[in-house]
Amino acid sequence: MKRKLSFRLILVGVSVLSTDASLAESGWSVSAGLQTRQVNVGFQLAAPSAISAAGAYSLRRAAGLGDVGVATSGTQFLRYEDGTVGVDLSFFKRGDTSFSVSSASQVVFGDQPPGADFATPGTVTFHSSGIAYEYATLFSATPYEGEDNEVVLSPFIELRRELFRNDRLSAGVSVGWSWLQSSHSSGWQNVASLAVVETATRTNYTYVYDLPASAGGAPTGFPPVYDNTSSTGVIVDPDAYNSFGGFSPGDDEFVRSARTLRNGRSSDRLIVLLQARSRADLKLNAQVLPMLADIRWQAAPRMALSLLAGPTLNVIHHRLNSRTDWLLNGRRFASSEASDSGTRLTVGGTLRALVSVALSQDGRWSFEAGGGYDWVPAHTVSAGHATAKIDLSSWVGSAGFRYVF
Fold first, then answer.
1. Domain segments of the chain as ranges
2. What CATH class is the domain 21-50+148-191+278-404?
3. What are the pLDDT digits (tens) for 150-182?
4. What is the CB neighbour count within 10 angstroms for residue 174?
5. How far apart are CA 253 and CA 118, in angstroms?
């Protein structure tokens, strides 16, 4: 019984070797199946240029009297919030400047009878105020950089020609084709902001005029400095007052320089905030044509191991779309779009290992599985504010069937 079993095993072994020899004479085989790889895409979203936000707000004009200034001659007329300084109202036009006040508290002197002159120098004070508005545009850029990688499944087919074979070792060349497609997106990203800040500055002005004194009594014809009964008075023009004996023009006993005092306070208010968001979407398809040389080793009667290497020709087509929206209170205020498409031819390389297991007795059909690494030079494409770096370099896995002609 043992001899019979042994004889049958020997016959089977002879049959397999005979079949391999017949297959070796044809030299051609074809493989088909599926490959998996990762497509790597890096996105860069640049910040857009600042836009005009003029349509998003209204300018406010200055309010109030502002800086009225001080009178320098008897021909001016100035109106303050609490009085006036104006033209010479006296009967004899000497170029004096008259004034009126809203309150007697604006005139600083000691007690005096109505219509009398003052024996000591004094002042009369007026006030005004104003609000001025300034607008500043503040732009901040926050460019985005990120990746969106996708694992894809693609069909492949390869045609192999065997060039050499001995008992367990063979060598050959093959050419293949595979096709893949993928979609990538950066998603919406905030890339810039634009703020309009309103600065309101309120300034209070105080105008002080020095009143002359009539020390020792006023000369004949000297006009009253201030009249309590009418809240009016005279500010003497030093260049015009020269008609009274004993005093020279500009004598500081009578006239001192008018002066302006001021103080202000500013406050800021954010009136507009625009935010820019951008996104990029990339559609990609590629055809990969490997041209390989291989060494095949028959590890067992029904199993072979192969090592393959060679260049690859990569035909890569892309379409990149980008969009940037400026949002005001969540609503679109302005937008821009751009797109780019094209095809790039790139030469790369691959190194793979393969395991084949015979499925049929004659060895014509076999199942193959393998893996390796494909190297493809990366390249960049741009559209508008978006840039995409396309990199097909990846570890590759495959599974399929092989048929020997």
1. 21-50+148-191+278-404, 54-136+197-270
2. mainly beta
3. 999 999 999 999 999 888 899 999 999 999 999
4. 20
5. 12
